[in-house]
């Protein structure tokens, strides 16, 4: 081996490694940018009261981590087995409170996989297309229940007001009423009644509430739009 070959070998080695590290850097940078875009879409379209600042930050950071994992295990089955074995001992204690949050987690994971296999144009295009879909569903309120649909929950004192009295009070204002749940205390002195209501187009909600309150046995009353989903 001549002296030129002796010095050329480390230069070739470190040159190839430098190119490899530069590719990783650009992949992580692009993953971070797409993570910001996905988190922004989540922030603008989320309607859940379970909205969390830490969850938004996690969406941004999970994506480059997943991309790094895929880059690391690419073309190496032993690495993949070892890595997933290590992940199997990790316990994720944070519960996903909203089904839509789970969608965003899966979206971030999928985008990270795509970047990890060096398909950056595909990752960018898919992120733009899915973002458009999310905004479209928000604009058209797809899946929302009718604005005239409500959930009524009340507590009745057994001897003074019956369920039929409540039903009669509602007849003037509703098109349809269905009993969803009935619970009675052990001493049968109070009954918890939950009903689904669809109001008439010209029905006045305030008048309906006032009419219900005229029942002497009505101890508590709560009415919420059925489209208002509480998440805790």
Strand order of the largest sheet: 2-3-1-4
Unreliable sequence segments = none
Count, helices: 7
Tell me what portion of residues adopts beta-strand conformation. Answer: 15-25%
Q: Can you walk through the features of this model?
A:
It is a single chain. The protein has 232 residues and is of the alpha+beta class. The protein folds into 2 domains: 3-139, no CATH class; 149-225, 2-Layer Sandwich (Alpha-Beta Plaits), CATH 3.30.70.260. It has helices at residues 3-45, 53-73, 77-87, 99-116, 120-139, 163-170, 205-213; strands at 149-157, 174-184, 190-199, 218-225. The chain has a 4-stranded antiparallel sheet with strand order 2-3-1-4, covered by helices on one side. Helix 2 packs parallel to helix 4 (99-116). It is elongated. The termini are far apart. The model has no long low-confidence stretch (mean pLDDT 78).
Helix-strand blueprint:
Layout: H1 3-45, H2 53-73, H3 77-87, H4 99-116, H5 120-139, E1 149-157, H6 163-170, E2 174-184, E3 190-199, H7 205-213, E4 218-225
Antiparallel strand pairs: 1-3, 1-4, 2-3
Helix pairs in contact: 1-2, 1-4, 1-5, 2-4, 4-5
């Amino acid at each position: 081996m001549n002296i030129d070959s002796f010095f050329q070998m480390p230069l070739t080695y470190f040159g190839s490694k430098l190119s490899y590290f530069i590719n990783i850097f650009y992949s992580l940078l692009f993953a971070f940018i797409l993570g910001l875009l996905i988190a922004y879409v989540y922030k603008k379209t989320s309607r859940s009261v379970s909205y969390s600042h830490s969850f938004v930050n996690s969406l941004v950071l999970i994506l480059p981590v997943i991309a790094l994992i895929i880059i690391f295990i690419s073309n190496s089955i032993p690495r993949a087995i070892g890595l997933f074995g290590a992940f199997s001992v990790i316990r994720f204690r944070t519960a996903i409170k909203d089904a839509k949050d789970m969608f965003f987690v899966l979206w971030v994971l999928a985008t990270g996989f795509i970047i990890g296999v060096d398909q950056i144009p595909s990752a960018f295009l898919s992120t733009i297309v899915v973002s458009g879909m999310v905004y479209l569903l928000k604009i058209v309120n797809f899946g929302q229940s009718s604005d005239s649909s409500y959930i009524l929950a009340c507590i009745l004192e057994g001897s003074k007001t019956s369920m039929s009295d409540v039903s009669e009070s509602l007849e003037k204002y509703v098109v349809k009423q269905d009993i969803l749940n009935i619970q009675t205390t052990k001493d049968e002195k109070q009954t918890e009644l939950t009903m689904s209501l669809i109001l008439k187009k010209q029905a006045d909600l305030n008048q309906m509430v006032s009419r219900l309150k005229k029942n002497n046995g009505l101890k508590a009353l709560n009415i919420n739009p059925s489209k208002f989903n509480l998440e805790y």
